[in-house]
Amino acid sequence: MKKVTNNATHRIKCKLLPGNLAMRVVCPDCGNDTDFYEVAENVIMTTHYVQNEDGSFTPLSDDSQVIGEVRLYCGHCNADLTKYHRRFMEMLF
Question: What residues contact 61, with CB distance under 8 A and at least 6 apart?
């Protein structure tokens, strides 16, 4: 269902979703509401390894520290959705 609001200065088109779905993040460019990805800038990653008897390595643990900005993108059209990142973080379980 679409709602159009007329105003003397502009028109606004909003996509209304039924029930509690109105809280979903939706890409304004392509309508995607399922696939997203984050890009973190200036990240320090530390991984601890153990060397096996055969000379190969197995990771034991890893840790990361983000120093720069973290951006959110649409997984379909790659639109920058960073303005929705706070909402994304609130709903990350």
Answer: 47, 48
Count the domains in the chain: 1
**Could you list the residue range(s) of the whole structural domain that residue 60 is in?**
24-90
Position 16 in a domain? no
Q: What pLDDT, in 10s, does the model give residues 8-63?
A: 444 434 444 455 555 789 999 999 999 999 999 999 999 999 999 999 999 999 99
Q: Which two tokens stand for residue 31?
A: 């309508």
pTM: 0.63
- Quick one: tokens of 30? 């392509």
For residue 8, is it within any domain? no
User: What gap in Å lies between CA 5 and CA 12, rounded to an integer?
Assistant: 5
Write the DSSP symbol of residue 38. E
In a domain, 10, yes or no: no
The Cα–Cα gap between 61 and 46 comes to 8
Taking Cα atoms as reference points, which of 9, 21, 67, 10 lies closest to residue 1?
21
